[in-house]
Amino acid sequence: MTTAFASPSTYVQGKNLLDTAANYIKPYGNNGLLLTDEIVWGLVGEKFYKTLTDAGLDIEHVTFNGESSPEEIDRIKKIGESSNAKFVISLGGGKTNDTTKAVGDQLKIPVVIVPTLASNDSPCTRLSVIYSENGEFLKYIFYDKNPDLVLVDSSVIAGAPVKFLIDGMADALSTNVEAQTVARARETTLLPLQTQQTAAGLALAEKCEELLFKYGNQAVTAAKNHQVTPALEHIIEANTLLSGVGAESSGLAAAHSFQNGLTALSGDVHKMSHGQKVSFGTLLNLVLEGASDATLEKYLKFEHDLGLPTTLKDLHLEDASDEDLMKVAQLTTQKGETIHNMGFKVTADDVFEGIKAVDTFAKKFEGIE
């Protein structure tokens, strides 16, 4: 058995961290690119840029066009080549991060990720999700290493709408559920060369879940009021570091396969965030592996209290036909999906019945039926 663990070289988190970010970036060189979209530039980017340049760094601001596409990656790569950039910084959300990782990989220069949201765990991972210029999913790209530096300014995260924090909590909630599934099945992780979990990777997934249940309500209350508190700091770390490293080094199972399976359908379901879709998938994962009533109710309550989707109606699929749900189930179980890490054979029929079971039990739990 070969095990593996991967993480960013350095992770730093704290209030008003952008003010001192140059101290952490300077070891990588004196000139680089700063990738942001126009919205982030107006909110915090321009001030961050001035902080870096005032500290003596030569920074070229590049406006991100919004899609982590091969064309956008190539465009930014050429800018980096012409300026002989020594590093590339992402300031923004998931697609900005993914594009920055790809540029850094192609230029073979350090990657610095500065997330402005705690809505997903992309900042710490060694992969990018690549889309066409029209926003259609194309592929995943896996890299040889994780980002060199991740800087998380908790005051920036607290300043964002709370729904983004909740989205990140939903995604993070799946981390340990899927990690434990993979552990029982002794299946492989997301890391290359079919490696298995280390005790460290599994421990991070467990700590991620512990923090969510321990500090979640406090953190959401603080974020609603744009306050940085110890509870919020814990949840930011859970959403960003522990979920990212925990999932990558511990593996995925049914929750994320279900999220991918939803692409079989069109319509309002795709107005839901990644975390919202995964939240239903977490319940499906539990049902498929035969979780007890008490366990399922524990996760249902957590998701319900946060306003996350637990029924088909919540996913805008209340009118979905059995044929539609079977399409989701078939795509969820296609070859190569992580649902095959469950440790037992999972068919499209199993997933179809599981989806129905989650919906029925959630409605009963919430007093709808």
In brief:
This protein is of the alpha/beta class and 369 residues long.
What does this structure look like?
This protein is an alpha/beta fold. The protein has 2 domains: 10-158, 3-Layer(aba) Sandwich (Rossmann fold); 161-365, Dehydroquinate synthase-like - alpha domain (Dehydroquinate synthase-like, alpha domain). The chain has 13 helices and 8 strands. A 6-stranded parallel beta sheet has the order 1-8-5-4-2-3, sandwiched between helices. Helix 6 packs parallel to helix 10 (274-288), helix 9 crosses helix 12 (322-332) and helix 10 crosses helix 13. The protein is globular. The mean pLDDT is 96. Pathway: Polyol metabolism; glycerol fermentation; glycerone phosphate from glycerol (oxidative route): step 1/2. It is an enzyme of class 1 (oxidoreductase). This is Glycerol dehydrogenase. Its EC number is 1.1.1.6.
Describe the protein's topology.
Blueprint: E1 10-14, H1 21-25, E2 31-36, H2 38-54, E3 58-63, H3 70-83, E4 87-92, H4 94-107, E5 111-115, E6 127-131, E7 137-142, E8 149-153, H5 154-159, H6 162-185, H7 199-224, H8 230-250, H9 254-261, H10 274-288, H11 293-305, H12 322-332, H13 348-365
Parallel strand pairs: 1-8, 2-3, 2-4, 4-5, 5-8
Antiparallel strand pairs: 6-7
Helix pairs in contact: 3-4, 6-7, 6-8, 6-10, 7-8, 9-10, 9-12, 10-11, 10-13, 12-13
Quaternary? single chain
Instruction: Write down the CATH topology of the largest domain.
Output: Dehydroquinate synthase-like, alpha domain
Poorly predicted runs of 5 or more residues: none
Query: Which architecture of the largest domain would the CATH scheme give at its second level?
Result: Up-down Bundle
* Helix content class: 40-55%
Distance between the termini: 48 Å
Strand content: 5-15%
Number of helices: 13
- What radius of gyration results from the CA coordinates? 20 Å
- SSE arrangement, N to C: EHEHEHEHEEEEHHHHHHHHH
Number of extended strands? 8
Question: What is the name of the CATH superfamily of the largest domain?
Answer: Dehydroquinate synthase-like - alpha domain
Structural class: alpha/beta
Largest sheet: 6 strands, parallel
User: Could you name the CATH class of the largest domain?
Assistant: Mainly Alpha
How do the strands line up in the largest sheet? 1-8-5-4-2-3
> What is the residue-averaged pLDDT?
96
Shape: globular
